[in-house]
Amino acid sequence: MTPTLVRQHRTHAGATPRVDLCARARDWSEIQERMLVPLYEAVYERLEVGTGTRLLALGCGSGLSLLMAASRGAAVTGVEPSSPERLALARERLLPDAWDARGRADVRIVDGPPGDLGTAGGAETPAYTLVTAFEPLGWAGDSQGVAGLLRAATPLAERGAPVVLAGWGPPERCATASVLRVAGKLADPLRGAGSHRPTLRDDLEEVAQRSGLRPDGSGRVACPFGYADTDSALKGLLSTGLFDAAITATDRTQVNKELTEALHPYVRGDGTVWMPNVFRYLIARVP
Known about the structure:
By secondary structure, this protein is of the alpha/beta class. It is built from ten helices and nine strands.
C-alpha cells in the first residue's frame, strides 16, 4: 500500500534493525504493489497518458506504475529517495534490454530528490507534463514529506500540468483499515512512527494547496487487496514498512500473531484473503 501503498519507514535511530530490507522490497514488488494497479489505470486513462506524456513519478517504489505508463508510450522518470532496495528493483524492471528492439532511452530512475533532475525545460530535462505521487496519504507524517517532494518537483513541470495525489477512501469502505490499526496498537509508545489514521476528506486538497497547486478534480477507485493465502497477506502487508515500529516495540512473532487474527474475518473458504478498499485521487494543476 507510496507512503504506496505506503512509504517504507526506516528503523528508529539507535534501534537494531529487525527486518531484511531486500526481502521486504521483493515482497512489495511481487505481492503488494499490484494492489494499486486499478488506481494507476484509472488515472492514466483519465489523463490520456501515452506518446507525448513526460511523467515524473514521486515515490516510484519498485517501478510498476512507471512500467505501465511506459507501455502506453510515455517517457518516464522515477524518483525514490526513501528505499534504495525498491529502487534497485525498479531499475531491473525498466532496463532497456527488457524491452523490444526499440529500447527505452526515455526511462530514467533517480535515487535522489527531485531537485537532482536538473532545470525544467533545459536541454537534458524537458518540462514534465504529468507528476504523480501515488503513495496514499493517511500515515503519520506522510503529508509533510509528500508536500516537500511536490514543492521540489513542480518547478520541473510545465505550467498547467496535472499533479496526482492519492489517499485512502472512507474507513467504512476500506476493510484493510481495521488490519492496519494493528500497527499503531503494537507500536505504542512508538506511535509516531508509521501509525495509521484514516485519510480525512480534505487531506489531499490541503497538501495540494500547501504545495502551491490548484485542485482540479478528483475520483474514486476500487482497490481490493487480494492474497493467495494468509502467509502471502502477511508478507505483503509487512512489506509496506508500516509495521516496523511495532516489530521494534514487540517482535516479529507477536506482530504476525496479531495480524493473522486481524485478517481472519477476510479469509475465504478456499483460504484466499480478500479485503475490499476504495482509494481517492486528486488532480491538481501547476500554476
